[in-house]
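Discussion board: Methods & Data

I've been asked by a reviewer to show the raw model output for two of the constructs in my manuscript, not just the figures. I'm not sure how much to include, so I'm pasting the format here to get opinions. Each protein appears as its amino acid sequence followed by a line of discrete structure tokens. Is this the kind of thing reviewers expect to see in a supplement, or should I convert it first? Here is construct A:
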Amino acid sequence: MKPLNSNRANLLLLFTRDPFVKLVNKELEYYSSDDDSLIGFVSLDREDYTFHAMLFDRDSRNKYCLVSMKLDYCSIEEARLGLEKLMDTYVRNEIALRKDIPANDFFIPVTKQEQRHPFFDKLLDKEGFFTAAKSVIEELSFHFEDRDGNFVDQFQSKNGFDARIWELYLWCYFREENFHFSYDYDAPDFMIEKMGYEVAIEAVHVNRKQSIEEPANIPTLEEIQRKMEDEIPLMFGSPLYSKLKHTYHNQPYWELNHVKGKPLVYAIADFHADMSMTWSFPGIISILYGIDQKAIHHDDGTISLESESGIVFQKGELRIKPLFLDEQFKHVSAVLFSPCGTLSKFNRMGVQAGYGSMKNKLFQIKMCYNVLPNAILPNFFGSIVNESCHETWADGIQIFHNPFAEIPLNPALFLHAGHHFYENGLIRSVIPHNHIISTTTYNIKNFPSDPPSFTFQSADKFDEVIKKWRM
């Protein structure tokens, strides 16, 4: 028996452990058998403070499942020895582990080459930049339920890859927040439940406007400011409004029997251009609440917040009001957004779990909320991604609550998200420590040394580091 990286254990067991059991048991140490076929953990029972040993093996679908356990040890040392004995004496029961449904395989090509998304082809490259991401998605696929039967085809295609990556990311996040899933209905995309509370989630994304073949082009600050006036807010508003009109069996989602009386959340991601999710975030606040907030730093060192509310957006001759002020949006409890639901997220999670090529190095730069008084700049962090890092699926999740919703969303159900509320013409935000606003991952091949880690607020210092490492 040997120690197992906690990041890998959490990934392998994410959809194996029952969320309720996870809440009442604190997992302390993770181990694998010497041949890596078995994994297990030692945990503390939060109720009676005894220790448990849990052993897991893969079934015929490659899903890890609980195969043996010993409970109520008096000390962690006894539980550790108990787990080692479970591994040494374990005999695999092929009949008990046999499942009628074969294992999923997202990576057997079923889409014609000319229709494939280039990122899918990159996932197939065994020496490429995304080998860690492929390992993560492969492990997740063993647990995935393809309700509509076209997930794999869309996951591989130019038209469907972004949407399916976003759905996989949301699926992982909701499980990390200890939700159960109901697969009894085809729509909306997720019906999740925790402690008796159910929430309906519909995934939506901003379609790609930049050609896949075009190189990434991050706009200048002046271009971003200009785009934020109408273009970016309306870009988010269009798919959200279209989703509002979407029906299932000729009924709006909120009138479906399994959704009626429950919060309905739209989860949106921005894929309109490469890296666009790193800077388009403010457009959501504008289109939802009609608010433009600016922090002004005065010469005497004080900070004042200038807020303009009641903004109306112009599209040709059409004037469009903020979505949460539209009577039709009273059925939508909140809008969820994240800048992190991309392939780079899966790559980072994979590297932290010990997957990927040793030839490649990931360097992450993230911009996080700065909660210090009079702070006008966010915090910047830059560091190499490795197994000592601990990133969660919740990093970067933002939930914007509708102040006029008929059925409000309880923020306590999403403990690790950032929550934003409209109050007296301003946005009040409740944010976890160092919560991500945006993040960029640099995938570096055959780099001779690790780039230096850094933490700062100075834009000049940021530019200096970028220039030094030619990022």
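Construct B, same format:
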Amino acid sequence: MTEPSGHRDLFDMTGRVALITGSTRGMGMAAAEELARHGAEVVIVGRNVGDTGAAAETINAAIGAERAHPVVADIGHRDTVLDLVARTQRDLGRIDVLMLHAGMNIWLGETTELEDRTLAKFLESSVMSAHWFCREVLPGMVERGWGRIVFTSSVIGSTLGSSDNGPYGITKAALVQMARNLACEYGRHGIRANAIAPALFDTRQAHSVLSDEDRLRRYIERCPAGRVGQASEFAGLALLLSSDAGGYINGQAINVDGGYSVLWDSYS
């Protein structure tokens, strides 16, 4: 039986190495900063050289230490994923935390309008990419008897359906099931796999909703918290699931939505 690592502080990430995709801004960057602030060496992954470097510089300045390491990579390609994992293991020695936050949402419409190539792009950039990453990092985690895998899903996929965002929800639901499968396969090796499922957060990615007064009003009226989420609130859960503090949370999809997905509007 694998025992907890014995860190005095359950949130202490000193000595851990975390690879976080989609971490150049928003919730991904907030999660990267929180892990780095708690001692982890964090690989910042993005597709743009300027954004990736700027994110690492901002995090290092905020925490007063050089723990954020920028790497430019397009994770929609298998060879790139393999190279990224190998480079991280070579330069930093290991990968203890794999957090797959990057995603895509390039299409809206009805199922009958969805072309095969578009659906294939969704699946490759999210589901297949997650499979490639996990297949590469799991052996090292098993060898060390400790590992954390955190997927960013969505309430569209974990709990709710969508009338116009079908392929996005399909990929996010697949990540939830992948977390469950990995939890069952690798839990006895000290590895935990979970998914975070956010709703609407105050990020650039959500600009289309945040800038639409009517859509934003309807969301806030439905949400029991009465507001949208903040990136720091995502980061807090990301830290929990990445640390010893979350050592008995496994195979779960945790909605971070202010209660949006649990509210039942009666017809009375």
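Answer (T.O., handling editor elsewhere):
This is acceptable in a supplement if you add a one-line summary per construct. For B, something like: The radius of gyration is 18 Å.
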